[in-house]
Write a structure and sequence with these properties.
Layout lengths: L1 H12 L32 H4 L3 H13 L1 H23 L4 E12 L10 E17 L4 H68 L4 H36 L29 H4 L1 H22 L4 E12 L11 E10 L7 H67 L5 H35 L27
Length: about 475
């Protein structure tokens, strides 16, 4: 009893070292500033950010059907089940015991020289080899499993955020191809009409065959672009269908990108806010905490362990005697195990867990650096692409005027037809580039929304509360 009391006092004195998270290895501010009046992405639910009804319907379908998201949800269930198993390992397993036996010993093996025949019955409850968690080893393993379960949940939320952004990007890309295809078909129709006119002019001797071949070349270029864009659109439609995870009817819309609801500007805040807003950073923190708990459990394995085996019931030579007062029986068998030599297994296990903790620290810091880079890249791209849109609009206006003036000069006989061909070719290219620039500018804001952890702290996007029997909520998630 004195030894048991000493062990219990030692257990009270043994507390795991608290985990000190490493400082964020990034600058304190972003390279680009944002307006403090813009909404913050982490508190802005995706339905509030993506206001286009068609896009909202696609995102809803994707969240319900996407297989990658289902895989992530299944991994959360697996991690929660693993936590449940580890939690159960810290509790005694109560078993019911019932038995009935008959023994017959012949006289030849009985030292008394007589035949023995006996019977017995027993009935009781007890638990076998229950480890008393003196040094919090089982508690640390349970905490590691709980942290792993929380990391899996954050990974699922990260996959959800990534899916929302991917669907939005695919929807924008499909809209861009629809508008570019409409422009290319308009150019094809216009050049087909020009070919018809020049064919008649050549027949009447008003134009040369060289001019006719130049018009034919311009038409084939437009036709080739139409075919190329049709193939790209078909591939992009399949990409969107794969993300949504269900068949879709995606008719062509010539104004799909122009009718797209504008993507709002966002307030970036400070890099320190990413530590709570980005699911991948929060998941990496939980993995780091799990690794820290595993180190604590590996250290606790160096101390003695106490296991208990108990039973309480009745026993008698016959079944009727089981319920008489004199048939009560009990068993209390504590066992103290003191590790002396195991070939270095505990030392190597501790070294392994410490190395894994170092890896988890590096992964945590890397996830912060990656998030910081993604935000800066998205900010830089957003500002640069807005300028590109303005430049592309001005270029389109200039090319439109150039094409008009070149046609007038040709009709007046003061310019060669080659000047008209160059102007029309450049006009089509300018229209295509403007649509591409608009899509890229909108896509950069989608990337910024995801990079800032869009919607992860919004009440509308919060997952349902876990049941009371589930893993403990980690302190890192507000």
């Amino acid at each position: 009893m004195a030894l048991t009391g000493a062990l219990l006092l030692g257990a009270c004195a043994h507390t795991p070292e608290p985990l000190a998270l490493p400082a964020a290895p990034v600058a304190g501010v972003y390279a680009e500033a944002s307006s403090p009046t813009d909404p913050a992405a982490p508190t802005l639910a995706w339905r509030s950010y993506f206001t286009d009804p068609a896009l909202q319907a696609l995102i809803s379908q994707a969240l319900a059907n996407n297989r990658d998201l289902r895989i992530a949800a299944a991994r959360v269930q697996q991690a929660q089940a693993a936590w449940g198993l580890q939690h159960a390992a810290s509790l005694p397993s109560v078993v019911g015991m019932a038995g009935n036996s008959r023994v017959h010993l012949p006289a030849g093996i009985n030292p008394l020289g007589s035949t023995i025949q006996a019977s017995g019955a027993s009935l009781g409850l007890g638990f076998v080899s229950w480890e008393v968690d003196l040094w919090n080893r089982l508690g640390q393993l349970q905490d590691a499993a709980a942290q792993s379960a929380e990391a899996a949940e954050q990974a699922r939320r990260g996959a959800e955020l990534s899916l929302v952004a991917q669907v939005a990007q695919a929807h924008l890309a499909l809209g861009e191809l629809d508008e570019r295809l409409a422009l290319a078909r308009q150019a094809e129709a216009s050049r087909a009409e020009s070919l018809r006119i020049f064919t008649r002019r050549v027949a009447m001797g008003a134009s040369s065959r060289l001019q006719l071949t130049q018009v034919q070349t311009l038409l084939t270029q437009a036709q080739a672009l139409v075919v190329q864009l049709e193939q790209a659109r078909a591939a992009q439609a399949q990409t969107l269908i794969a993300l949504v995870g269900a068949p879709l009817d995606l008719p062509e819309r010539a104004d799909a990108l122009s009718r797209q609801s504008p993507v709002a500007r966002l307030r970036t805040g400070l890099p320190s806010e990413l530590l709570q807003a980005r699911p991948d950073i929060v998941a990496a923190e939980h993995q780091l905490r799990a690794a820290h708990a595993q180190v604590g459990a590996a250290r606790a394995a160096f101390y003695p362990s106490l296991t208990l085996t108990t039973a309480l019931g009745t026993t008698s030579t016959d079944f009727d005697g089981l319920f008489r007062g004199a048939s009560k029986a009990w068993l209390f068998a504590p066992s103290l195990n003191l590790p002396l030599f195991d070939g270095g297994r505990r030392e190597n296990n501790l070294s392994l867990q410490q190395a894994r903790q170092l890896e988890a620290v590096a992964q945590y810091e890397k996830s912060i650096q990656n998030a910081f880079r993604e935000v800066n890249d998205a900010l830089s791209a957003s500002h640069a692409l807005e300028q590109q849109v303005h430049i592309a609009e001005a270029a389109l206006q200039a090319q439109t005027e150039r094409a008009r003036l070149s046609e007038r000069r040709f009709d007046a006989g003061s310019a060669a037809f080659l000047e008209v061909l160059d102007a029309q070719r450049d006009l089509l290219s300018a229209g295509q580039q403007l649509v591409q620039a608009r899509r890229a500018a909108m896509a950069s804001r989608v990337l910024l929304y995801a990079a800032l952890g869009g919607g992860t702290l919004a009440a509308a996007d919060a997952p349902p509360s876990p049941p009371s029997s589930g893993p403990r909520t980690a302190t890192a998630q507000p």
